[in-house]
Every structure is written in C-alpha cells, then in structure tokens.
Recover the amino acids of this structure.
C-alpha cells in the first residue's frame, strides 16, 4: 500500500480514536473517588466471575440442560448491575445519606419483623422476603445493617459534645444497635454478632466511653457463653458415637438454638469421621490447592461435593484452584481496601462522612474475615458471604451500595483538577491526624443538621 492509502486509513481511524479518548476522559471524570478502591472492586469482580463459573459449571449443566454457562451470565448481570449501583451511589453527595438515615432505619425494623414471621424459610431460618414483581428474594438484614451504620454515623457526628454522657451520648447510640441485632439474632446469629461488633468498634473510634462499651460486651457475652456451656455440658462422645444421645436429640429439635449448640460441639469436639461434611470437603479443597498456584482455573475437584461452593464456601475453592498464593492475594485486596478507607477517615474533615466510610468498610472487612475464617476452619460454620466474590444476590447488591457510599465520601473530599465550568468546588482543607477529633467535633455542616 502507498502513503496515500495509509493517510486515508489514518483519517478514518482518527475520529474513533478521539471518540474513545474523550469517552475515557469523561468516564474518568464522572467516576471519581479513590482509584485504589475502584481497582479493588474490579479485581474482586473478575475473581468472582472466574470462581463462580468454576464452582457452578457442573450445577448449571445439570439444571439447565447442558448449559454450563447459565450461572456465569447470571453473575455477570449482577456485576454489571452492582457496578451501576456503585456508580450512582457515589455520584450522590454523602451528606444526603445523613438525611435519609433515620427513615431507612425506621423502615428496616418492620421489614425485619415481617421477615421473622412471614419470610422465606431455609434451614429453619427465616432470613429472606420475596419481592413479587421482581421475583427476587432479599435478605432484610443487609438493608438493616446498611441503615444502622448510616444512622450510627449520623448520631456520632451530632453527639460529640455529649459523647461521654450515658443518657445523652451512649443510649441514643446503643439502643438502635440492640433493636436491630435482637431482630436479626433469631434467624442469623453470626450476622447479629458481626453487626454488634462493628457497631461497638465504630463507637470506640467515635470516643464513646470505654466503660460503657465494656458493659455492653459483658452483657452480650452472656448468651454466647451460655451456648458454649450448654454445648460442653451436653456433649457425650460415647452416646454420640452410638447414636443414643437423648440430650443431643432434644437440642437438635430446638430450631436455630439447637443448630448453634450443634455447630459449637462440632467445632470443639468433632474428629475424624465425626467432622461435619462441609468442613471435610473444605479441608480437602485446601489440601488439593497446595502452597503455590493450585490446580488452575476451573480445575477444582471439590466443587461437585462442597455445599455452597459458589457462596459461603467459595474461599476454599479459590485456594484449591489458585493455591495459597491466590488465597493470600484475596486477603491482600481486602487489607488494601480497609487501609484506603481508614485514609478517607483521616482526610475527611466532617464527622458524618468520616464515620460513615469507616463503619461501612469495617463491616465489609469483618464479614470477609469471618467468611475466610470459616473456610479454613478457624471458627464454626456461619452463613456469611465473601463480599463481592460470592455469587450475586441481594447481599452482593447491598455490598455494592456500601462501596458506592464510601466512594461518595472519597469523591467529595478530593476535588479533581480541571473541573468543567459550573461544577467547580473548593478543595477540602487538609487536617492532621492529631487534629481530626477536634475538627470533627466543631465542624457541623448545616446540611448534616
């Protein structure tokens, strides 16, 4: 081809090149916030696609007439919707969430009550309600947790002057937590414990009196210790082996309470063949993965045997296919995510945004730790998912909403350069870490009031 041909081709390509460059720059401006958090979201979404496809391929082949990609496209749809949720939530000024926090909290209470009595029941637990129009089940505890942390952040930002006072500072914070956790406990003990722990941690950072927090921890520990005590005192190894343990049979018939006791006994005493089937398959999957790079993408052997391999038990599948290296990489991503959110807390000069970003990041990080700890048998089996990695559902979308709110805080404290005309905003003043408490106590935006 001659020079004229090349010039003609170049002239045809240049408009598309300019269009692509303009679109990417526009998207880069519109999708602002912490770039590291955006990158972590994308990496976890890619990991989710790979692992969910591997874990569900056989299941999809069985239930969808040989179509082993059915769940892959379903997960891809959830990821696309989730990214849209993140985008639109991060475009909203985070102070708007302060205005709606109380309403969301008040709405979540009757929803939790409705779920307890009329929700969809699975494994003796009523955690979901079905939306008739969308034909989608949602876990109301996810909405309640999001609303609770928004409300606590609002209260912490407003009550810093009275935060050490029991009646004026502590009770308005702890009562909403008790109500939400009490409504979640009957169906999901692990979620209630994680929610309560995250709330207390956020209060500790919000300068709530330590003696008040210790009092709550002491009271909350009583039912937990009671479950452990019953599990220890009712365990009879010989009777369990022979199958004639009447006490164990009675406890197992007590619904969720019996499940909690049984799981505690299995975690403490189970050995050899008595180890629960799910734990056995998790251990085999981890052993198959080895130290370095595992069996390779899509080569999991235990995905056909491990219950909930695409959901609660997805972390052992990650280790099996990608080895210890892959498992540590997932942990590394969550650590960086938490670190970047702590950085937002330090940079945000206004109390509500700082507490909101920190509270939501804590709940996601603690949930991830709990899921991975179950996967490697460090704690008893729970029903929590791995954020942004487990197969999509209402939990996935509420996780995306939480990340969108965190990015909203990041977007509004980091003024980007070269803003288009009409969208200029003043840069947020930098605040040293030692000055954070004083500034956040004194700085009360009228919009937060």
């Amino acid at each position: 081809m001659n020079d004229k041909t090349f010039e003609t081709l170049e002239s045809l390509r240049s408009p598309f090149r300019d269009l692509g460059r303009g679109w990417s720059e526009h998207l880069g401006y519109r999708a602002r916030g912490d770039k590291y958090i955006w990158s972590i979201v994308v990496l976890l979404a890619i990991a989710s696609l790979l692992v969910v496809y591997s874990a569900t391929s056989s299941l999809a082949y069985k239930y969808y007439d040989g179509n082993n990609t059915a769940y892959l496209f379903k997960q891809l749809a959830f990821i696309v919707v989730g990214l849209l949720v993140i985008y639109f939530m991060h475009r909203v000024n985070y102070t708007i969430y302060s205005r709606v926090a109380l309403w969301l909290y008040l709405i979540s209470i009757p929803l939790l009550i409705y779920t307890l009595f009329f929700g969809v029941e699975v494994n003796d637990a009523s955690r979901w309600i079905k939306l008739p129009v969308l034909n989608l089940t949602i876990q109301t505890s996810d909405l309640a947790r999001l609303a609770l942390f928004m409300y606590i952040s609002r209260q912490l930002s407003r009550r810093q002057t009275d935060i050490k006072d029991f009646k004026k500072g502590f009770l308005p914070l702890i009562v909403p937590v008790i109500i939400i956790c009490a409504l979640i406990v009957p169906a999901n003990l692990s979620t209630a414990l994680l929610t309560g722990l995250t709330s207390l941690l956020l209060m500790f950072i919000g300068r709530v009196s330590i003696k008040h927090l210790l009092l709550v921890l002491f009271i909350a520990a009583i039912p937990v210790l009671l479950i452990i005590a019953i599990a220890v005192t009712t365990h009879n190894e010989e009777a369990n082996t022979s199958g004639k343990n009447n006490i164990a049979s009675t406890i197992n018939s007590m619904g969720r309470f019996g499940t909690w006791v049984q799981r505690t006994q299995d975690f403490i005493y189970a050995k050899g063949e008595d180890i629960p089937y799910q734990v056995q398959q998790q251990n085999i999957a981890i052993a198959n993965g080895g130290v370095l790079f595992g069996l390779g993408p899509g080569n999991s052997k235990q995905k056909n045997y491990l219950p909930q391999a695409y959901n609660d038990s997805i972390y052992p599948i990650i280790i099996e296919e990608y080895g210890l290296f892959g498992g540590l990489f997932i942990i590394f991503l969550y650590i960086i995510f938490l670190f970047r959110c702590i950085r937002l807390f330090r940079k945000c000069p206004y109390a509500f945004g700082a507490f909101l970003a920190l509270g939501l990041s804590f709940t996601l990080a603690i949930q991830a730790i709990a899921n991975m700890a179950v996967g490697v048998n460090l704690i008893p089996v729970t029903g929590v998912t791995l954020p942004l990695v487990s197969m999509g559902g209402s939990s996935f979308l509420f996780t995306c909403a939480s990340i969108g709110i965190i990015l909203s805080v990041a977007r509004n404290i980091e003024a980007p350069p070269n803003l288009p005309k009409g969208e200029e905003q003043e840069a947020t003043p930098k605040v040293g870490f030692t000055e954070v408490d004083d500034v956040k106590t004194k700085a009360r935006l009228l919009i937060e009031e």
Observations:
- The chain has one domain: 35-233+276-416+425-442.
